[in-house]
Amino acid sequence: MLHIFLDESGDTGFKKSGSSKFFVITILLTRDELGIKRAVKRVRQRKLKKKMKQLPEIKANNSSDTTRRRFLTDLAGLDIDVLSIILSKDTVYEYLRSKQTKLYHYLANLILNECSLTGEEVHLIVDKRERKRLVRDDFDDYIKRNNNQCKTITVSHFGSKNSAGLQAVDFLSWAVFRKYESSDGSYYSLIKDKIITEKKLFE
Fold this sequence. Notes:
The protein is an alpha/beta fold. The protein has a single domain, classed as Ribonuclease H-like superfamily/Ribonuclease H (Nucleotidyltransferase, domain 5), CATH 3.30.420. It is built from 7 helices and 6 strands; from the N terminus they run ββαααβαβαβααβ. Strands 5-4-1-2-3-6 form a 6-stranded mixed β-sheet. Helix 5 (about 135-145) links the parallel strand 4 (about 120-125) and strand 5. About 35% of the residues are buried.
């Protein structure tokens, strides 16, 4: 079974102030889900302050520099592949800016199409970002319809506190996002050897 964890960094808004310049979707591919669970457990035990250990999940945006670097270094030592799509939002056509849900679906599918999934049994795990069941079902149908080369594909929507893989891809996506949004490649450099696709859109 090929496990694919998908998360995003930045936002899909297009306000002149308050919105990110870039939107990044990242997927983490692995057949070793246990290795990721162990990496999360190690970083929680060794690098988190006492009050942080009580939180149900670790997130890149509220972790210390030490935690981020240790976790990313641990992930870089695992048998994983990382793929990212980087959208420069100022290049998005005006008519697409009001269709943020469809844009998200399109980008998620686009990054999946960068993978070799023919004949694979795939479990796609997505952060439960959308509360409306109808929107989640539409996403699932869109992904399955456009990835029929898989032997099977199952889509699950989990809260990240219930998935070590989603916590891992949150850090990976954050590292890629920071490279573009803040021109800081120091975290990205820790995982760059695991990135097999880094696709920039609409430049």
